[in-house]
Queue: 2 jobs
Job 1
Amino acid sequence: MEKVQNLIDFIHQSPTPYHAIRTITQRLENAGFTELAENKPWNVKSGGSYYVVRDQSSVICFKIGLKSDFRGYRIVASHSDTPGFKLKPNSTLENPHYMKFNTEVYGGPIFSTWMDRPLGIAGRVYRKTEKGLTLELVDLPDVCLIPNLPIHFNREVNKGAELNPQVDMQAIWSTKGASGKSDFNALINKNDIISHDLFLYNREKGRVLTSGDLFVSPRIDNLECAYTTLEGFLNAENEKDILVYACFNHEEIGSATKQGAGSTFLKDVLERIGYAFNKTWEEQKIALANSVLVSADNAHAIHPNRGEKFDPTNFVKMNEGIVIKHSARQSYTTDAFSTALFQEACKKANVPYQAFANRSDERGGGTLGAISSSQVSITSIDIGLAQLAMHSALETAGTKDVIYMIKAIQSFMGMEYFVEQPNWLLK
Ligand SMILES: [Zn+2]
């Protein structure tokens, strides 16, 4: 249960991708990792552990055994972002009665779950100071809310009400004139903000339900994977392969940004590690051919009231272990080879696993594994933990699964020897 509480704290400290990466890098600093900057030369040595941040919202860290022979890379990847609402540049909206924020939808949140709860605002701002432009992280816990229309004016609300993002999802922060604040800068007492990436967020702290086997929290997708895979990575040891942990921003909007899983970030880092150790072009290609990527992003647990939405034989449950996601159209990268490898890692760690596939008439979602493969094309698998209400402002997951993921990733990363992928089956 201690790990579940740590996860809940981790999520609470990470209202936005910028905060999540800061929380992760603080953990890495405490574990003795050294920061490398992309715009400076790297001094990388055997036995060392390092991290690189891009855009304050994605991180890649790696550790190299003292006697590493660069057989390959053992990589685990997750994402730092969450669906929600982003403030527009001119974010103050006023009408004769209220002060409001003008927001835009980020990714695919379930709108109705954002109504009638205290919302915070967090993200990054640039300010003009004597030193020039200064970056600051901002986190204001109780700022605004998005009110529902009363049922008396919307009698059909429980039959599914349409919510227009420009009309219905604008958050109020004051009644007009009462607070004496005229815009966002005045609200937070900072008049020198030049630009911002700010998001509304659910500031509620996660908690374990009385039964002890379920916990609720905002941002379980995907900070549960970001946290558990980090712990597994930190625990793991491997003398042959280089261990890599990545957490990318922008999965919820398609990953096609300079710091997303579709960028060259991972490829750039792997190449620079190779160069630092004077590996030839061919040696680097050999290392890639021996590498495996585990893409960790949460999965849909069978729904208590809508079980008919799930595949009849490949549905998954909370507290029953690692979900291995399969898709014929390879929206998940999993194949027979990567399944065999990962299941071995789970067995070694005594961790249960289960298979997920969408109903054949449901499309389901995609994730970062397939996107990352377009830049770094290596053996990959898509896994996750089962949860309810994905993309709700408050999600639910199983407490036992937290430790399962930590153990499975530790085992996968430390596994001494992998079955070689045969080039061809000879008689
Ligand atoms: Zn996700």
Job 2
Amino acid sequence: MLEIRPTCENCNKALPNNSKEAMICTFECTFCKDCVDTILYNVCSNCGGGFSKRPTRPSHLLEKYPVSAEIIHKPLHKDSFKELLETFKNLTSRER
Ligand SMILES: [Zn+2]
Ligand SMILES: [Zn+2]
């Protein structure tokens, strides 16, 4: 089941289940759209993959399948990200 994480991993912005800004990679690393567009350039800083909009879980299922409460806040280290960014930023996520 998809983990609906509560915040952006980089800037810690709140990303509730119905957020229009929540983006995820294939491992559910979760960032806000601003960070994805202006800092990560669609390269996940953990795995190098691209991002898609996170789907919203229908509210009638939230009691049975609750969202995650665990905050993951790991601000980007620009130097260590540089290599990953150079490797992947010019490839679409389908080509990585
Ligand atoms: Zn962010
Ligand atoms: Zn990732």
